[in-house]
Amino acid sequence: MADIRHFDLTHPPAGFVEDPFPFYDALLSEAPVLPQPDGSFLISRYDDLDRIYRDTTLFSSDKKAVFAPKFGAGSPLFEHHTTSLVFSDPPLHTRVRRIMSSALTPRALARMEPGLIATVDHLLAAMADRPVVDLIADFAATIPIQVIGNLLDVPMDERGPLRDWSLAILGALEPSLSESELAMGHQAVEEFKAYLSDLIARRRAAPGDPETDVLTRLIGDSDTEVQPEGLSEIELIQNCIFILNAGHETTTNLIGNGLALLHDHPDQRARLLAQPELIKPAVEEILRFRSPNQLGNRETTGMVELGGHVIPRGSNLHLVIGAANRDPEIFDNPQVFDVARKPNRHLAFAGGPHVCVGLTLARLEGKIALERFLARYPNYEVLPGRESGGRIRFRGYAHLPARISF
Question: Which parts of the chain sit beneath pLDDT 50?
Fold first, then answer.
């Protein structure tokens, strides 16, 4: 491996996309705060990420200054990524998070669980007689689309384009983009907006039950005559896109990564099969060991000192979640995949006020998907031909061929 101090996230070395973890180890031990050629910084240590997540005064989530040159000020991708929950600061972040949190209460999640189980069991049954299946397309990617589609009450026959739109929009968050990737991202935002504008108009005309239909709840909170601090129409549309995207990509990766890891660590699969009560800590270990989201970002609002480096105001920080979750200062034997690991204070869902609003739903989806898959197909075999998603920010599989019936 070349000197890690020359590592450039926008031009990563050979092998990084396929297996970033040796590079993460080197960052942690040799360059936990690493200046980048473009003036940004890679931050890898757990304690530094934890501090950054908690301090919303010195570290802002607003990305207008970063995304204007990346996407073009006023462009579709710029509008989306600077309006949605994850890349916003109060007061927008506070308003949107309050609405989403109110729709994901324990009582609301309890109501979702029977439908989630039915979705998973239907998918498992549909695979039963097939000699080879794709654990991503046939299982992992379908579950969150259905769950989030149900949450917003998107008609079943209109869910087809959602995954492709999501992949194109989130793919635009990669550290470097081709012209075609950028164009696909812009087009996906425009098509998604057009679809949601029509869906919102239909829902205004025929509201659903706000107790179960998050879109109806969001529409109610966007009525500024009733709610002076409500969402504008653009904020409403863009945060519906955010809900569908955020709830889809990361949960797909959680389930797909989990099935791959349990296959690749047969001792841990056998342990989980023998002790199914370990499913909750197993989900946490999957989140830690192969975090679905490998990178986060913040911008400094003042001069700060991290790891002996003085970082100027207005600097973009790349938070290397995948490295922090293997920091030996925090985790014993961090390179070991242990389904019973405790404690496990990973940062897969970020932290502080911006901790993932859907973390409980994601954990529930991961738990039910994995435990029911293992109960039905305990001897599944991942076949040669697995294909990485090919991304730096989001880590998962594009294809995961497997044999489940013997």
Answer: 226
